[in-house]
Write a structure and sequence with these properties.
Blueprint (H helix, E strand, L loop, with lengths): L3 H19 L2 H20 L3 H6 L1 H24 L5 H4 L3 H12 L3 H5 L1 H10 L9 H39 L4 H4 L2 H11 L5 H11 L3 H46 L4 H42 L1
Helix pairs in contact: 1-4, 2-4, 4-6, 9-11, 9-13
Length: about 300
């Protein structure tokens, strides 16, 4: 029967060896180079002449990349052998595992389109090795709730102005405001201020009050709402930077030999040694007392 203590020590040694490999900068640079090679192979396959003439070579390189990705994932899994649950707490680990494992699913391997999309998703794994790109992706994800609110407010403003434009300009300018759809499309294009001059000129020929319509819309949609969106993204970017800095500090504390975790472990070891010494002294106490009792009658007989 396997000793649980020995099994735990074996997992700890395996995790330590794999962790030394995965945390080596050369390992990260190698995986990054393989990801770039995989992206280059996908680009080369878009040239039909090159893909047909070098089909076997490209296929062999693709299999080589997949083998290296699989080996990388095994090493990363091995680095968490002593704490398997911690592997799934990192979203990037789950993402990498799904991308690599999907290449071995039979139905996905037979579907060329899905397989190419999955291979394309491997390029996103560069975020693991580029901290600034990782911060941007996290910021985009955290800005989605605020962006959804912005889109709702923007759609509401666009609808109101489109209805006003339809009421005021439908008869005189049916090409741009003949329906709610045409009016919405016209105003959406005006959000970028492209063609605003021509629209204002056409509106002035209808009524001089149209300048208020276009000016208020340009101010609200192109300046106020866009600046609100920029503020949401910048706020999410600051939050992502703080999260990245906190994770870096946590990794540094974990790797610091004199950190709090190591201090706690030292105290636990010292407490165990003290308990062992106390237990040994308690075991020696009865034998010492018995020896004294044996010596006492001998002293009286003398």
């Amino acid at each position: 029967m396997t000793d649980p203590t020995q099994a735990g020590q074996g997992r700890a040694r395996l995790a330590g060896r794999c962790r030394r490999i995965t945390e080596d900068p050369a390992f990260g640079m190698t995986v990054f180079a393989v990801i770039m090679l995989n992206a280059g192979l996908m680009g080369a396959e878009t040239y039909h002449g090159l893909a047909e003439s070098h089909h076997q070579a490209l296929q062999a390189l693709e299999e080589c990349c997949l083998t290296l990705f699989t080996l990388e994932m095994l090493l990363r899994l091995g680095s968490y052998a002593d704490r398997p649950k911690a592997f799934f707490r990192d979203p990037w680990n789950i993402f990498d595992l799904l991308i690599v494992a999907s290449a071995f699913v039979p139905l996905l391997r037979e579907n060329t389109t899905v397989l190419r999309l999955l291979r394309l998703a491997r390029v996103l794994r560069t975020a693991r090795f580029l901290p600034h790109l990782r911060i941007l992706l996290v910021a985009v994800g955290r800005s989605l709730p605020g962006t959804a609110s912005f889109l709702f407010v923007g759609a509401l403003v666009l609808y109101v102005y489109a209805m006003v434009g339809w009421v005021c300009f439908a008869e005189s300018d049916p090409q741009h405001f003949g329906s709610i759809g045409r009016a919405g499309l016209t105003l959406f294009l005006l959000t970028t201020l492209d063609g605003l001059t021509d629209a204002v000129r056409a509106g002035l020929q209808i009524s001089r009050l149209s300048i208020l319509y276009y000016a208020s819309y340009a101010l609200l949609a192109s300046f106020v709402l866009v600046n609100v969106l920029i503020g949401v993204v910048l706020n999410s970017l600051d939050e992502a930077r703080e999260m990245e800095a906190e994770e870096a500090r946590a990794r540094k504390r974990a790797q610091d030999p004199g950190g709090p975790a190591e201090e706690v472990r030292d105290r636990i070891v010292a407490a165990r040694l003290a308990l062992d010494a106390l237990e040994a002294s308690l075991d020696d106490a009865p034998s010492a007392a018995a020896g004294e009792r044996r010596l006492e009658p001998a002293g009286h007989s003398g």
